[in-house]
Amino acid sequence: MRRQRERGAVERISPLWLAHHYPEDYDRCVRIRRTHVCRRCLVLYPLASVVLVLSFGASPPAWVDVVALVVLPLPALVELVGEQLGRWRYRPTRQMAVTVPLAVGLGRGFARYLDDQADPLFWGVVVGYTTIALAALWWRWRHPGGRTRDASV
């Protein structure tokens, strides 16, 4: 009886901390019981936390941190910009493929931040990549009809 009522009911909105998407974007989430959880966050934050813990006491060469903070997050940034500009549609498999290196970079970035809250590499990446992402989001907001749905990509 309860299941019949649930099927006919309006879909429940998940808490913001689990799914920061509106119901029309729940395709970007996985369902855990009756709650939607953001697919990217489900992978990103646990993996970044593991990298952070493994980074305690580590002092890798400077080039390793440049690769981790600058290069590894680039595919996720390109994916976000490409989606916002309408170059391709959302694909869960692509999202997961770009989220794993993003998580490694984020975890190492968190470690650098905890070591030095004024770390120029960390803040340079945060400011630079955030500016690019916000510009793509602004463009989508200003040109909502300009997005294409190229299913071939």
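The record above closes out task 2.4. Task 2.5 opens with a second protein, given below.
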Amino acid sequence: MKNNKWLVVLIMMLVAALAATGCGGKDGDSETIKVGVNYELSGDVAAYGTTAKDAILLAFDEINEAGGVLGKKIEAVVLDNKSDATEALSVATKLVTQEKVVAHLGPATTGATLNTIPVITEYKVPLITNSATHPDITVDPQTNKTREFVFRTCFIDPPQAIVGAEFAVKELGVKKVAVYYDNTNDYSKGLYKVFKEHVTALGGEVVAEEGYVESDLEFRPTLTKFKQSGAELIYIPGYYEKVAKIVSQARELGIDVPFLGADGWDSPDLVEVAGPEALNNTYFTNHYSPQDPSEKVQNFVNAYKERYGSIPASFSATAYDAAYLLADAIKRAGSTDTEAITKALAETKDFDGITGRFSFDEQHNPVKEISIIEMVDGEQTLKTKIAPK
């Protein structure tokens, strides 16, 4: 009995030791540094996830070719969340508990990212999203406290809505606007609210507004109301697949006023569905422009184009920044311990990325300029850059 008692104690000690090493990547003897890549590679917003994943793999290959980090190669563990928020949580759980990743990149959308936060927080593994822009991503709305392990390389929604409103009123000179937003999407509703408030504060007027739902395909009745309202601009804070159909149907109705949107517009599929001509006289706020003459930007654009045969979208740029930012944080931490990496991320100052030089504020959001993109014959052109006030 006495021997059995000590045997039980020994087993319990072994179980405790295994549990202590099972909460994500800690310092160890692994030959690689495993990083989880949890993105929408199929489903409704696969264009976002695929372009982000491609940019991350490009960045990791460049980093590994230059010697890696802390003498080790970065190993990307890529899984598809299928554009489904529930699946995103399952993927995150697998990456953290089974793959033992030291950090988690993605998902792309707000809903999917919010779903992953409980497991990320429980296992103390840092997450960087490159495109989830809702304020709640990095700040818990219940406590108003910054989420310790969550970061992003994209700007948040309120600044781009404010910059969009200022551009509409001050640069385009419009006073009467209509807003067409996705009533089922937090991203879209948040942008709509801030844009409306700021347009009004600038002396403009929202003369018409209406929400659509994800299943809608026919937008002409609402667009006809907008036309009759005398709106001089239509703001659509939505994702590219709906925006393309709305703009196309509007042009068919003879609506020639400018359209304005946000970073959710940025996808090659926007032009493919709407057509180049329909998109003339449209603008959207974005994280960068591939036409930016910066040598750093052009080197990235050329490398991405050579590898994938296409011009990198804004979410490619923010994902590329996320990959390099993570490598930089691991190097500064001098460790693959997840909490050390998290601390290094929070202390980021003047990181020189493709989307600009930025530091993190207290809520883990990057402070940087916002680009205004104009669509000209199907091509994105950099109209201007505006710093949020």
